[in-house]
Amino acid sequence: QKEVEQDPGPLSVPEGAIVSLNCTYSNSAFQYFMWYRQYSRKGPELLMYTYSSGNKEDGRFTAQVDKSSKYISLFIRDSQPSDSATYLCATHTGGFKTIFGAGTRLFVKA
Amino acid sequence: NAGVMQNPRHLVRRRGQEARLRCSPMKGHSHVYWYRQLPEEGLKFMVYLQKENIIDESGMPKERFSAEFPKEGPSILRIQQVVRGDSAAYFCASSSGHGNTDTQYFGPGTRLTVL
Q1: Tens digits of per-residue pLDDT, A11-26?
Q2: How far is the alpha carbon of B83 from chain A, nearest alpha carbon, in Å?
Q3: Which one-letter DSSP state was computed for residue A16?
């Protein structure tokens, strides 16, 4: 079993839709949770960083962590074509060793 | 304010040759991480280095792969006697190393193709 599971998609939505991206993880020791966005042929860039359970909002993006079910989510409101990218969830226990999901490819159609 | 720099961006090697990938961390960062990304797969941790020290290389194959981060100059990921299975995108990330919320910033990657 992978430590972090993520549906690779692709996920295709119309412009303006609310997008929900999800990951599950297996190790209850994970405390820190991140979402990265990766455009084609580019390096990942950090979008959101959360600690433990709860929600965190930044503009159109909301990250949600439910440690009881080991489930993490990223919501994108009013999605734009420029949001089309691969979204990677990631987590670590507080050290340096970050575990990444496989990434979900998102396409937002104009 | 330069970010993480990697070169070359694309590298083509024939089987049996050596590949050298370079990474210059962000200004002020002394921690470097190397990851490998295969198509349709996530980033796989390879090695974590601080200046002149390898902290963790548990994700790096024991043979043919080596990494260094000298006191001066970029970090180098070296792959000897490359095989087709080494074809992948190799990403470097750097961080300041401060605290549990230490954020890793990624470079644009080097895409290695082994013919």
Answers
A1: 999 999 999 999 999 9
A2: 22
A3: T
